[in-house]
Write a structure and sequence with these properties.
- This protein folds into three domains: about 80 residues, 2-Layer Sandwich (Metal Transport, Frataxin, Chain A); about 180 residues, no CATH class; about 110 residues, DNA polymerase B, N domain, beta-barrel (OB fold (Dihydrolipoamide Acetyltransferase, E2P), Beta Barrel), CATH 2.40.50.590.
- The chain is about 40% helix and about 20% strand.
- It contains eleven helices and twelve strands.
- The strands form three sheets. The chain has a five-stranded mixed beta barrel with strand order 8-9-10-12-11. A four-stranded antiparallel beta sheet has the order 5-4-6-7, covered by helices on one side. Strands 1-2-3 form a three-stranded antiparallel beta sheet.
């Protein structure tokens, strides 16, 4: 339960109003009395002080928090969670056929997977705008997801609420709102007129192939979905958003437009010329003297963890020597869209990077720390 000495009465009343609790009077300028929504628990009421300047303010807050903790009203738990976990609240609602309010297990799994993918896409777009990210910025998205909290799961079949850090991680939340609203407008325009340019224009607002794919996962197999957001009551809304509550809905009728848009954005993202430095972690070639494939754990030059590179014999030998010597290599090439920006084509100018002993130790430590989170190798990449 939240510490009453740290609870701001204005934040508590904001949360009560947000969740439909009804003000039933109170002494003007001193306290307000609140009752649960829809006449639930008629005997329950909260007496909340107007501010912390009164002698009994902490006692009244303590009583209100205790009442909420004991209440069976569903929103009481959500209010306590919002007080405990300062952050922006993102809500997903997925309507699926069920019996007696229960839904298939797989439906709840899809809801969690789609929400995870949506948050990851928003985190990436909050860092950089791209029509298609692929594996780029995966590590950044993973770090963001580690800081997202799901409080009091099981609030109902087809429902999920997450709290994203505010104000520290606001770019992800604000980008999610802008991108979803842009997507809704683009789908409406495409269905009404057949025009698809709005999807391209939405990229500058954070729309991406990955975000659209997460919406597709939410919508497919459902009767409709809703994504809404409450800005943190403690922090307040970000500049330019006002106090409005963003709400975006999608239906199965949107699926053809969504799926076509996801393909369009993926095709539109160009390859990227890179100069990257990486540690050689795998080597393979079919015959001596021929070209070979190496896997590099990227240290700098590209926003991906690992890449595959095909090298001619001379460059492959440089990679072998660097691997045996424990030094990274630097090369130029083109990071290809196909495969999620995990492959470098037209590699050239492969050279070892000289390191002193301290740098070698730091490199070894970095590789050990990242080894556990590295993606699984493709079967074709495995060393014989």
């Amino acid at each position: 339960m939240p510490d009453a000495t740290r609870v701001d009465p204005s934040v508590l009343t904001t949360l009560l109003a947000r969740h439909g609790w009804v003000r039933r009077g109170g002494s003007g300028g001193r306290y307000s009395r609140w009752a649960p929504p829809d006449d639930l628990e008629p005997d329950t009421s909260l007496l909340v002080p107007a501010d912390r300047g009164f002698d009994d303010s902490v006692d009244l807050l303590e009583e209100s928090l205790t009442t909420l903790a004991r209440s069976g009203v569903p929103s009481a738990r959500a209010i306590l969670a919002a007080l405990l976990v300062p952050g922006d609240e993102i809500h997903w609602r997925r309507e699926v056929p069920g019996v007696g309010g229960a839904v298939p297990w797989g439906s709840e799994t899809e809801l969690r997977e789609a929400a995870t993918a949506m948050l990851a896409a928003a985190a990436k777009a909050g860092r950089a705008r791209c029509a298609y990210f692929g594996a780029r910025l995966d590590r950044h998205a993973a770090r963001f997801l580690d800081r997202v909290l799901v409080v009091a799961p099981g609030t109902g079949a087809g429902l999920l609420t997450a709290y994203t850090p505010a104000p520290a991680e606001r770019p992800a939340a604000t980008t999610l709102v802008l991108a979803l609203e842009a997507l809704r407008e683009a789908v409406d325009l495409q269905r009404a007129t057949g025009q698809t340019e709005a999807f391209d224009n939405g990229v500058r607002l954070g729309l991406s192939r990955e975000l659209i794919a997460s919406v597709v996962l939410l919508v497919r197999g459902s009767e409709g979905v809703r994504v809404s957001l409450h800005w943190s009551a403690q922090v307040g809304p970000p500049p330019g958003f006002g106090s409005r509550r963003p709400v975006v809905e999608f239906s199965p009728g949107d699926l053809p437009a969504l799926e076509a848009a996801a393909e369009r954005l993926e095709r539109s993202e160009p390859a990227v010329e890179v100069e990257l430095t990486g540690a050689v972690v795998r080597l393979k070639r079919a015959v001596p003297g021929g070209e070979g494939t190496v896997r590099l754990r990227v240290l700098s030059g590209a926003d991906v963890d690992e890449v595959r590179v095909k090298l001619a014999d001379a460059d492959y030998r440089v990679a072998i020597a660097a691997h045996l010597d424990g030094t990274p290599v630097r090369l130029l090439g083109r990071l290809e869209r196909k495969g999620g920006f995990r492959r470098v084509a037209a590699a050239r100018d492969v050279t070892p990077v000289e390191l002193d002993e301290a740098e070698r130790d730091r490199l070894a430590k970095t590789l050990r720390l990242r080894a556990g989170s590295a993606p699984e190798a493709d079967a074709e990449d495995e060393t014989d």
